Amino acid sequence: MDFELKTLSTATAANLAVDALLVLVPDEPGKDPADPLTDLIASAIRAGDLEEGPGKALACYRAAGIKAPRVVLVRSGNAEPAAIRKAVAGAMAHLKHPGVKKAALVLSLLPNPARVLRAAMSGCTEATYSYTTTKPSAKARTLEKLVIGVDAVADAKPEFDHARAQVVGVEFAKEWANRPANHATPAMLADAARKLGQKPRIRTEVLGPKQVEALGMGAFLAVAKGSAEPLRFIVMHYSGGDKATAPVVLVGKGITFDTGGISIKPAPEMDEMKFDMGGAASVLGTFAALAELQPAVNVVGVIPACENMPDGQAVKPGDVVRSMSGQTIEILNTDAEGRLILCDALTYAARFKPRSVVDVATLTGACVIALGGVRSGLFSARDDLASALQQAGESALDPCWRMPLDDEYADGLKSNFADMGNVAGRAAGAITAAKFLQKFATELPWAHLDIAGTAWKSGAAKGSTGRPVPLLLQYVVDVASSEKGDNPKPRVSNRSRRSS
Length: 500
Ligand code: BES
Ligand code: MN
Ligand code: ZN
Known about the structure:
By secondary structure, this protein is of the alpha/beta class. Helix content is 33%, strand content 20%. Strand 19 and strand 20 form a beta hairpin.
């Protein structure tokens, strides 16, 4: 989809040659200019046809004096970004007609269009997204072009660029996460990463089983060996910053299918374990966004990718393996495989002398129980890193919640046969998983995002969300502006509901 940022008053919007106008209307719209669009809004409100309240909408056809045949007036409510995203997404239902190829989203009536631009663009793109790769009969997105109307282009340009990059990144992540496991094997993910490597400032390296063995990644190899699909270890570099500046390293769990292995999962909903590479997809998506936005920062992406399958060759409960760090692990449950591939990736990440390492993983069902699909789980022993990620999530409308990492949570990982087991008890499963990872990040400024609840939706709306690409992109952009010496831009601060 194409986007264009344009200065649009109500008068110029009324003359715009588009198939549809979507106009966000604040509670107190100005009444001064005498133009058809202002008249339409005023008379709709007077007649009680456009109620107050975010998302309340009125769809009009061939309104007098307005060039676009379809006009949808949508109430912005308090004009907070979250309300705008929801209102725009809902209003898109009125524009499902295949004849709507070019639309304009008019934000000019709002008090601060730049502040809600990203929310509005993501609401529109989310509502029109369609996955077609393995379903050719699905209705593809018909909207080809979206004009964003603001009061002053110069003020809104940075947000517009960020929003456009975010959309590219989110849709890249959705596409790969939505693909079934036989259409998104480790080798295919590596090919997608290689293709991104042709974009400006991006370079991709891909390691196979032999090289991973030479590195001593015994934990990663143990998971991969039950599958006929060969593993891939993907390393991407985005070099937008000074050569000497330490990179942010993003590590993504790339289990392209998780059967559980010998500790096999029950049949219901097992298909959803194709999404178990959601962390990897979000790292790839973030790189796709970086290629668009080109911020001045260095980022490394590390993706261990393999399947977790039961097989005659598969790792067995009780097997002990040696990780790249030298620590040995008793694999008590082969379904706790994410931490096994991530621990070796974290050891590998240390070679980049990173300013921070953030791993992203659909790691535990326990995190779904704890936080549901609203917030991702955030784990870090570093307060500065945790708060940077937390803030990035708030301003990108992709929120996370910090969880504790007290050392006592690691007690259950003790083993009589190895340096640690790969599982503790059922209690606090998201935290004990994080404690396992922490044993491989002791020297690193490390954070972990458990996206098991947020990476995809189940049920009728089954599909990837593209999260946490918005959070990751925001975090990396904030790092770029802090390295430039700027204070990170004051951003939308949604009320924090955290008490401490
Ligand atoms: N990929 C799963 C986590 C998961 C489960 C995400 C359900 C989303 C929905 C992970 O590999 C896993 O199987 N974790 C186990 C760990 C357990 C064996 C300690 C889990 O959460 O049940
Ligand atoms: Mn598993
Ligand atoms: Zn898994």
